[in-house]
Amino acid sequence: MGEPPHLHPSGPGIVKYRFAPTQGPGRYRPPHAKAAMTPVAAHLLWLLLAWSAYCALHSALAAERWKAWLASRAPRLMPRYRLVYNVLAVALLLPPLGLMARWGGEPLWRWPGAWRWAADGLALLAGAGFLLTLRHYDMAAFLGWAPAGAGTAERLTLSPLHRWVRHPWYALALVMIWTREPDAAFLVSALVWSAYFALGARLEERRLVAAHGEAYRRYQARVPALLPRPWRRLTAAEAAAIGALARPAPSGSPTPTQGDA
């Protein structure tokens, strides 16, 4: 409504009311009135919920408790569970990515001058690093085309990038994400991704410690998780020594190169 009514007597016992316009800079807003959520804020909230749901489901489907329960009821599925998991992960990405594309807008900031070149250069280096790490992964097992380990014990194997950070894929992904020029939808998504990488790394390392024991604890003490520090890296000889110390993990247990999944 407009302003509180102003009383205008128009004769004995007669009162007329005048209301100010309900729109415009001088409109009256009762003290108890709440501001409505803007469409942009509503879109960003829905996007946040969509990404949060995706991350929760992605993590739940990777949980050892869930896989043990499924194996007890559908053992024939387990040799191809990784393939089914990856297909679901890609399919479930489509709704939040669609929301990002639909609700995207102007960038919130732009890299000026030489900073733009530096940001793009870092993103390209991260992409190249990602491709270089592929030869250290059992991609057939990672993608689910072949059972991991083929029934043999798996050892702790550290690639060159694992000598700098314990989760190189996550670290490289963070570089590619935060060197972009984000709009509001991308920024919300980037914050969720970053939090999920940090949480996912911690959850994954519980399984890695259980699989590889004291050797992985020593590796954790020497090498940072996501942010490389030159004074905390392993030499090739030190990485080999830690790998030799580790006890072989049962087939299907996580390894560092599988840990970035």
Give an overview in words:
The chain is mainly alpha-helical. The protein has 2 domains: 1-35, no CATH class; 44-245, no CATH class. Helix content is 54%, strand content 3%. The protein has 9 helices and 2 strands. A two-stranded antiparallel sheet has the order 1-2. A hairpin with a 5-residue loop joins strand 1 (6-9) and strand 2. Helix 1 (39-62) packs parallel to helix 7 (184-212).
Strand content: under 5%
Radius of gyration: 27 Å
How do the helices and strands follow one another from N- to C-terminus?
EEHHHHHHHHH
**Spatial gap, N to C terminus:** 56 Å
Low-confidence spans: pLDDT under 50, at least 5 residues? 14-20, 149-153, 257-261
Overall geometric form: globular
Largest sheet: 2 strands, antiparallel
Helix proportion range: 40-55%
Helix-strand blueprint:
Layout: E1 6-9, E2 15-18, H1 39-62, H2 64-73, H3 81-102, H4 114-133, H5 139-143, H6 168-178, H7 184-212, H8 214-222, H9 236-245
Helix pairs in contact: 1-3, 1-7, 4-6, 6-7, 8-9
Question: Tags for this entry?
Answer:
two-stranded antiparallel sheet, 54% helix, 9 helices, 2 strands, 261 residues, globular, mainly alpha, disordered C terminus
Summarize the structure.
The chain is mainly alpha-helical and 261 residues long.
